[in-house]
Amino acid sequence: MDKFRMFFQHFQSSSESVMNGICLLLAVVTVKLYSSFDFNCPCLAHYNALYGLGLLLAPPLTLFLCGLLANRQSVVMVEEWRRPAGHRRKDPGIIRYMCSSVLQRALAAPLVWILLALLDGKCFVCAFSNSVDPEKFLDFANMTPSQVQLFLAKVPCKEDELVRNSPARKAVSRYLRCLSQAIGWSVTLLLIIAAFLARCLRPCFDQTVFLQRRYWSNYVDLEQKLFDETCCEHARDFAHRGVLHFFASMQSELQARGLRWDNAGRSPEPPAVPEPPEVLDSGSGKAHLRAISSREQVDRLLSTWYSSKPPLDLAASPGLCGGGLSHRAPTFALGTRLSQHTDV
Amino acid sequence: MDKFRMIFQFLQSNQESFMNGICGIMALASAQMYSAFDFNCPCLPGYNAAYSAGILLAPPLVLFLLGLVMNNNVSMLAEEWKRPPGRRAKDPAVLRYMFCSMAQRALIAPVVWVAVTLLDGKCFLCAFCTAVPVTALGNGSLAPGLPAPELARLLARVPCPEIYDGDWLLAREVAVRYLRCISQALGWSFVLLTTLLAFVVRSVRPCFTQAAFLKSKYWSHYIDIERKLFDETCTEHAKAFAKVCIQQFFEAMNHDLELGHTHGTLATAPASAAAPTPPDGAEEEREKLRGITDQGTMNRLLTSWHKCKPPLQLGRGEPPLMGNGWAGGGPRPPRKEVATYFSKV
């Protein structure tokens, strides 16, 4: 348990670490999934390629979608992309950065599956056994073309009676597996070289822009999380007050009707004065939630958060919600301040 | 669990220790990968050598590059190399040290793979089965009568016991034993050489430029830790920024709604609600912002960090951080030293 807690804490330290952890977990799940999957080539002429290629490509697609689903940042990115500009202008660079970071992490598990499948060879042998050129192998010299095709279709199945213990089957199978492993290793090598070059050469281009985009995409993620937490707190307070108000109003209603809580024999006691609702609201930290106390107000707050996010300027006076309740002049000077620092 | 936690914390303490841990894991993974990998010699004359060379060389290259990619110092090295000097001079010795340390760690897993491959022998057998001296090991009299392609085709099948049909020429066991023996000898020599090289490098290094080495090591650790701390500070700042931004948003809504409400429960609200006091934590959040409260300033800070890193000199007064710095530190006022020599007669 301690071990898990430690891993958990390490990975929770930043959202990037969380996503790296999820990525790794998905890769490990992929390896386990592949090793426990029972590959079952149909060994029939037209179905082999379908089955082999299907198994090579469909699970990676599923894993890719799972990787996108499991990553919180994909939702944050889409939200940032689709929100109206409002008081805060949108930077396409940040959206691109988040998109590339999400895609990279989501691509890890599918690539692990594809590489495992190629290095193992079964998928490849099943898919391409019918496409082998029979002239490469001397054992097919005295067979008719249709016999050759039938034979080749059965190559992936070692136990089939037509091909059992046949040296021709072993030669073809060996050839295809060798090809599959060569392709697998080449793909691995290419990917690793691409990753290495990307990592090495990135600081050579636009390092300052990269630092800014990384900071602000992290900020967007944190802000969304904090907003959700603040809304949860608000909802809890709202619910608490609502329940207390309900109990207080029930109590006052019952006392107004003259019902007593005590036994019938006793003399009626004067009803206690119900506490004013404001006392229920007292408590630290509720001052800033006092006005937002009805469904419409909460709805309005949430739709303003979406349609008109506050500007990234804390020194200015508290901003407005676009509409017309406030009587102060809008502080649109913020827009000019934001745009003047484009180059240093 | 305590032991595990201690090891984990020790390895996390700095990038070099962390990389040592990763290195160890990759070496083990390399050996495990080899044993899980199903070596599949094609047993065809042209393909054997290509396949074996591929298996001997491609995975080590992959492991080496993987070792470099997983090392955060690679991008740090590139950053340090490409940054403008700003107010902090660049030291090529530090860059060299970082590169050497990364490369050394990344080389361990490939060396393990090559050693395991040679000691196992299958790869060597597959590559050189056509070069076996048939005249010495088998029926030497029959060999010259065979055309070369036929001989090659026969010998290429030596690694595959189920399709080998040349027992009349050369017993398969003999060839396998011969080639495996050479392969293991090569494997052990390779292991011995690399260990010797590592030992010599490690023990002889202090004899040369130890002082410069200590300096490079210190400043390379410093750069690593500085970068980590900068990232952590940026994250803290972003968190504080977001908290204050959201609080201001709620306060603004609160303010607008109170101005708009003319009846209801708010009519009885105390006057102090018009200017709600921020909760206690807001002050310390504002302090964490260190005065950087808008997007433009933050962007300028990040640009300055790259273009004009601060000098490695603390407590030097407060030079402006946001201006365009110039290379080299501020000149000290020239000190006049007067040396007077007295001769003792």
UniProtKB/TrEMBL annotation, chain A:
Its domain of life? Eukaryota
Location comes to: Membrane
Q: How does it sit in the membrane?
A: Multi-pass membrane protein
What Gene Ontology terms describe where this protein resides (cellular component)? plasma membrane
Q: Name one GO biological process term.
A: ATP export
Q: Which parts pass through the membrane?
A: 21-37, 49-70, 178-198
GO terms, molecular function = monoatomic cation channel activity
- The Pro residues compositionally biased stretches are 268-277
Alphabetically list the UniProt keywords. Answer: Ion channel, Ion transport, Membrane, Transmembrane, Transmembrane helix, Transport
Q: Which family does it belong to?
A: Belongs to the CALHM family.
Name of this protein: Calcium homeostasis modulator 3
What organism does the record attribute this protein to?
Piliocolobus tephrosceles (Ugandan red Colobus)
Automatic annotation (TrEMBL), chain B:
Cellular compartments per GO CC = plasma membrane
Alphabetical GO biological process terms: ATP export
- Disordered: annotated span: 314-345
| GO terms, molecular function | monoatomic cation channel activity
Q: What's its membrane topology?
A: Multi-pass membrane protein
- Segments traversing the membrane: 21-37, 49-74, 182-201
Q: Where in the cell is it found?
A: Membrane
Q: Which UniProt keywords apply?
A: Ion channel, Ion transport, Membrane, Transmembrane, Transmembrane helix, Transport
Q: Member of which family?
A: Belongs to the CALHM family.
Please identify the protein, giving its name as recorded.
Calcium homeostasis modulator 1
What is the originating organism of this protein?
Piliocolobus tephrosceles
Task: State the encoding gene.
Answer: CALHM1
